[in-house]
Design brief:
29% helix; alpha+beta; 8 helices; single chain; 8-stranded mixed β-sheet
Length: 271
């Protein structure tokens, strides 16, 4: 066999061609791997930046159950909460109508559901309604000395309302004279413009202005605790209740038919 024939039969063992193309398979495979690697790299960079954002991290922790949802209450204890309390949105419409709005009180069973206002004194809203019109019903109002932004400073949050013959305003409080009603309806919802709050009733009593149940000055913890115990003792319905120096009190006050008489419902902030 001559040299020419040997050259013509030399095998080509290493290169295979893809169908309908002149490009070697080995080369196409390398390019495909490079493209895939580039895509993976881009995705990795994307997830690094995306997962690094606080919102994504918070969402992941919440779903996985690792989010820390404990807070320290005023008594120094830790309670699990679902989320941080937010100002009730429904109160905005009342604030827009009257900037004096500080909250909203609801006791459905007693027919009480009113916005609460606060003036610079305790006289104006005795004779003026929520929309500042002059009338005999007045409004449900908070004592001017109270501070919804700093409950511990006030300790005793006092709300006043007339006892109207038509059953409006704070007339419904008188139903708490009945023990069964008292036991079945001890929760008050008094939301401030800062946060929604619930309060548990522990005392119901009649008194006169001689007993200064609307005191807001308690310079010593012992004075505060003695005051709470005294109010509890005066209640016409006796229930077990523990008191602590960091307790916050909600006092609802209305008049009675007696001269200088007052009907009082007291509740403690649920923490």
């Amino acid at each position: 066999m001559n040299k020419k024939n040997k050259l013509t039969v030399k095998p080509y063992r290493f290169k295979k061609y893809a169908k309908n193309t002149k490009q070697p398979i080995e080369k196409r495979t390398k390019e495909s791997l490079i493209i895939i690697a580039a895509i993976v790299l881009v995705l990795c960079i994307f997830f690094v930046f995306a997962l690094g954002s606080p919102k994504v991290i918070q969402t992941i922790e919440t779903v996985s159950g690792t989010e820390d949802t404990t807070q320290i209450n005023q008594s120094g204890n830790t309670n699990a909460i679902e989320e941080t309390a937010k100002p009730p949105k429904y109160l905005k419409k009342y604030v827009n109508r009257n900037p004096d709005t500080v909250g909203y009180i609801t006791i459905d069973s007693a027919g009480i559901a009113y916005p609460v206002v606060q003036a610079d004194d305790n006289d104006y809203y005795i004779t003026h309604g929520f929309t500042n019109q002059e009338n005999s019903s007045g409004a449900i109002f908070m004592d001017y000395r109270c501070d919804i932004d700093d409950f511990p400073k006030t300790r005793n949050i006092i709300l006043y309302g007339h006892r109207m013959k038509d059953g409006t305003m704070f007339k419904g409080l008188l139903q708490y004279e009945d023990q069964e009603f008292f036991l079945e309806n001890r929760i008050i919802e008094f939301d401030t413009i800062n946060e929604p709050l619930q309060w548990k009733i522990f005392a119901v009593f009649e008194t006169t202005t001689d007993f200064y149940y609307i005191d807001t000055e308690f310079p010593y913890d012992e004075m505060w605790l003695n005051f709470l115990e005294e109010c509890h003792r005066l209640s016409i319905h006796q229930t077990h209740m523990n008191f602590y120096k960091d307790d916050i009190l909600l006092t609802l006050s209305t008049c009675t038919t007696e001269e200088n008489g007052r009907f009082v419902v007291m509740a403690k902030l649920m923490q």
